[in-house]
Amino acid sequence: MIAVNTVTYPAPAGYMTPRTIASISDLIVHHTAGVVTQTPLEIDAEHRAIGDAMIAYNYVITPDGKVYTGRPIDVVPAAAYGRNAQSINVVLVGNFEAGDAGYTGPPTKEQTASLEALAIQLHRQYPTIERTYGHRDVATLFYPSDTAPYATACPGSVLYAELASIKRAIGTAINVH
After folding, report:
1. Alpha-helical segments (H) within 3-85
2. What is the pLDDT of residue 175?
């Protein structure tokens, strides 16, 4: 079981919608598209500055592979427009979009190992999760006739390329092929 570090965030700056665990069907992977030194509290402050009640993601993975709590699972996150009510959202700190001016290089081996371990743990803990995918997949999977409002490069091309092997590991670990 992967260790998850608890972060004490300030009280939410607004209302957050409660949800039932049974409504969760997606595990969505993101990147912060920022510098690798960002902390969960800095991400929270950035999200509050744009009007979110608190950090949009449920989990944060830093370059050293440490996993931190984010928004509580029992409230709707704000990280994947169009799929928030159905998703748990995990973000890796860094910008993994190759060619982007702010590209920080690939995710660290520690980050991808923690992402894989956390994803397996979440699939076991929440058996209602049916699929794991990158944020960019929301548009094509769920809104193919109107992708524009949902289009994004997240989680960046480099991390996105690693998701296939992470999904295989999840399938093997939870005996789904």
Report:
1. 40-49
2. 78
The SS3 of residue 122 is helix
Average pLDDT score over the chain: 95
Distance between first and last Cα of the chain:
22
Of 111 and 140, more confident = 111
Which helix or strand (DSSP H or E) is residue 170 part of?
Answer: helix 157-173
Return d(Cα 135, Cα 48) in angstroms, integer: 20
Region of 23 please: left (phi>0), alpha (psi -120 to 50) or beta.
alpha
DSSP secondary structure letter of residue 18: B
CA-CA distance, 155 to 167, in Å (whole number)?
15
Identify the CA nearest to 90 among candidates 120, 50, 130.
120
Q: Give the residue extent of every domain in the chain.
A: 4-173
Q: Which CATH class is domain 4-173?
A: alpha beta
Contact indicator for 58, 121 with CB cutoff of 8 Å: no
Cα 104 from Cα 129, distance rounded (Å): 30
- pTM across the whole model: 0.96
User: Which residues, in sequence order, are bridge partners of residue 67?
Assistant: 4, 61
Pure H helices in 61-156 = 109-125, 137-142
Amino acid at 167: K
pLDDT for 177: 47
